[in-house]
Request: fold
Amino acid sequence: MVKVKAESQKCGTASEKLALPDVAWAEDLAKLSWALAHPARVRIVRLLLDRTSCMCGEIVEEMPLAQSTVSQHLKILKETGLVQGEIDGPRVCYCVNSDALAALKKLIADL
Amino acid sequence: MVKVKAESQKCGTASEKLALPDVAWAEDLAKLSWALAHPARVRIVRLLLDRTSCMCGEIVEEMPLAQSTVSQHLKILKETGLVQGEIDGPRVCYCVNSDALAALKKLIADL
DNA sequence: GTGGCGTATCGTAGATCGACGATAAGCAAT
DNA sequence: ATTGCTTATCGTCGATCTACGATACGCCAC
Reply:
């Protein structure tokens, strides 16, 4: 839906520049894309989608990575908003933020 | 903020393993996502989509980056296959590879 | 060929990532 | 309060990214 006005002219005039909102838009998409820019994070998201929720320890078992490394990836995913964790006693139950995922899908689809 | 659903579901003993193809799939998606994991590259792709094709020099003028930096971003985009450049005399006309873009859209949409 | 234009590559420097082990922090049960 | 389990953070290392200027390459026009 974030359509940009058509400046579909020939590659002759460099007069047009990207609108300011476009910069923020690019940063949003870049941030979300960056969250998925590592295979481990992609697999984590996939895992959470398959299970709807999951503990950190289980993710660790699925991947050849140390617990601290997985925790860091989860932190990144949380910072981008793609994943959220709910404290459940001594554990944390992670799940995908479907709103953020939908936003990413829309940004990509509207590309 | 966004709220999360109940944590009641215990993530019991389902020690499922990701299928092997899933690893390759994750790497593919990660690679494509990585291409868009930088605002400059997002803007480049957007610019190319708006114009269907564009020279490197024009991209440079649209962004506060040196020509060599833009060239490096273009190289990354080419390596991922999202963008391709046609040599047109002394210049290079870049355009988005719609197949690769469609592949990315599908990978994201199927998430 | 020479010159000029557009692009790619090189080399460098600073910042960030990705990985790990070690350690701290939080909560439930004893 | 102490123990045990789960997760987060710290500190560090090597690798990679990002940016830039400088330079090399390719292609026309002259």
Notes: The helical segments of chain B are 20-35, 39-51, 56-62, 67-80, 98-109.
